[in-house]
Amino acid sequence: QVQLVESGGGLVQAGGSLRLSCAASGSIFRINNMGWYRRAPGKQRELVATITIGGRTNYADSVKGRFTISRDNAKKMVYLQMNSLKPEDTAVYYCNAEIFTGVIASGNYWGQGTQVTVSS
Q1: What angle do CA 93, 33, 116 make, to 5 degrees?
Q2: How many CB atoms lie within 10 A of CB 87?
Q3: How confident is the model at residue 103 (pLDDT cuts 50, 70, 90)?
Q4: Where are the beta strands (DSSP E) in 15-113?
Q5: Would you state the pLDDT for residue 65?
Q6: CB 96 within 8 Å of CB 37
Q7: 3-state class of 10 per DSSP?
């Protein structure tokens, strides 16, 4: 059974920083794309950042220059460094990964979410 577990959320003042971590565990053969998404109150879930197995990154325009996604393939972890946080970054942040449990068996997995609250 594959699990993604996020950590690192919390309450921070505007302009501050937080670092989110997500650990994958279970019967994992390979992890392809990993990413972070968020859902703000009353809004739909949106992409924040993604990273390929080779390290290619993609960011939402709203976080470019402020957030950095990275991964450690050996540890099966993905991180999101969030700097210059704004109140509009307040949301539940979800880790996502495309995980192969075998040579051809794969699935799209989500973590349980971690709350990030930015006060003004």
Answers
A1: 10
A2: 11
A3: confident
A4: 18-25, 30-39, 46-51, 57-59, 67-72, 77-82, 91-100, 106-110
A5: 98
A6: yes
A7: strand
